[in-house]
Amino acid sequence: MYLKPLACTPAEWKADLLVLILDRNHKFFDLQDEALQAKIDSLKEEYESGKRDAAFIFEPRHRSDIGAVAVYSTESYKGFDTSEVVKICVADALKAAVDSRRFNVIIAFNGPDGQNSPDGCDYINKAAEAGGMAFWSFNKYKKEKKDSSADLNIYFAAPNEAQAANSIAEGLVMANCINMARDMCCEPGDVINPETLCAMGKSLAEEFGYEFGEYDEERLKKEGFVGHLKVGGGSQYGPRMFTITYNPPVPEGEEPAPVPHLVLVGKGLTFDSGGISIKPAANMHEMKGDMAGAAAVMAAMRALGTFKPKIKVTAVVCSAENMPDGKAQRPGDIIVYKNGKSVHVENTDAEGRLVLADGLILAGELGATHVIDICTLTGACVRALGESFTGLMGSKRAFVNAITFAGGEQGESYWKLPLPIEYKEMLKTPCADMTNSAGPLAGAITAGLFLKEFAPENAAWAHLDIAGPSWRSKAWKYYPAGPTGVGVRTLVELARNWSKYLQK
Known about the structure:
35% of the residues lie in helices and 20% in strands. The protein is an alpha/beta fold. It has two domains: 2-179, Leucine Aminopeptidase, subunit E, domain 1, CATH 3.40.220; 187-486 and 493-501, 3-Layer(aba) Sandwich (Aminopeptidase).
């Protein structure tokens, strides 16, 4: 796939397919062609009156240099904001181009909303991101590696070529980072295990000049991070916790100024069999994706290496493989964490919270001002919210709202769940301070309450349960079926535009 800005006049456009997106409030394109504009105006009336809903493709007989015109309207897509609909339309148009073997495509963003305005640049950015995401597939292990989009030449018509080029590059950075997270979730558990995941983190840190810290089994034991040791005890691959830290650039000759320190704690269960409390065989193969939280924070750190936000950001990846073995933790074991709190293990398949507890404790030791943990944590959250919403819980309303707004800006949806004090009763157990499995009721909430016990007291903390949206069972919007890389865009948006969402 080839993406490039196009700054010539509409009269000079040459394409197999010209893509036009209609919107009630925005004029994305300027055709400078009366005959073509008359056709488009007629279609716009049909869309806005409800007489037409689907995309319309036709051949402009007076333009031999344009093979076909594909018209999409934002009126056809309900429930999404304009930016998100633009991405859906672009993805649909590019798929139609490939299906009809129209490989030279112009997407027109040369109208008033594209003329040197931030909004116009955002739409080109989003369109490029959708193009980069729409044809993702994991074919690394297939004998024949077919890329249906390989021959696509996509030109974004825009009045400012340099500005459009920057927007395209920015969109592709996000698409590539999201696709990186998707790839990671598809790799087999014998390829990405805690040790190789740690090596990937180290390589990422070296590539961007980040600080890197590794907690192998010896260091985990020495420093009291017992959750990893218990969860990973039954695996041939030793558990790992590691940190990747980005520090904002400091102008030469100046002292570093105090900045917020955002710590992203990602669950990295590279394979989760359930341990002694083993899962059913059906669909267990999908548990190689139980490290979607770790993939999201690592992909976000890759993006931040390009965007360079003004705050300090650290990724803490909590990684283990949960396997049944003679050395595996047992139901009935008691874990005493380094903060003094004890946990009675009633179900070894409720293991994600056990490693995240270590990561949250470490976030406090690192001096976090704000902490987000992101994880495929509970089936209860999937049952409550389905595949389109991330469950969001937190200790500070302003921080929870900031994440919600940042996610909405990037087309990722969150639903706030409560953390009622009375539900802490469900975590009580005679043998320890709390249990790791609070029963069938309010499972997503009790998991959040469990994690809150380990979050740094002086930091704003939020918990993102991505068990639902981390994987789509069917193609949706611009996502093929499979892992989605959910969370990457929200984390990057929040870090990049911190002052927009949080003043301190």
